[in-house]
Amino acid sequence: MTNMSKCQSNLKKTNLFLIGAMRAGSTTLYHYLSQHPEIYMSPIKEPCFFIAEYRRRNLSKIGLVDADLQKRIEIINNKGEFRTIEKYQQLFRDIKNEKYAGEASHYMYHPGTANIIYNYNPNSRIIVSLRNPVERIYSE
Question: At 123, is the secondary structure helix, strand, or coil?
Answer without folding.
Answer: coil
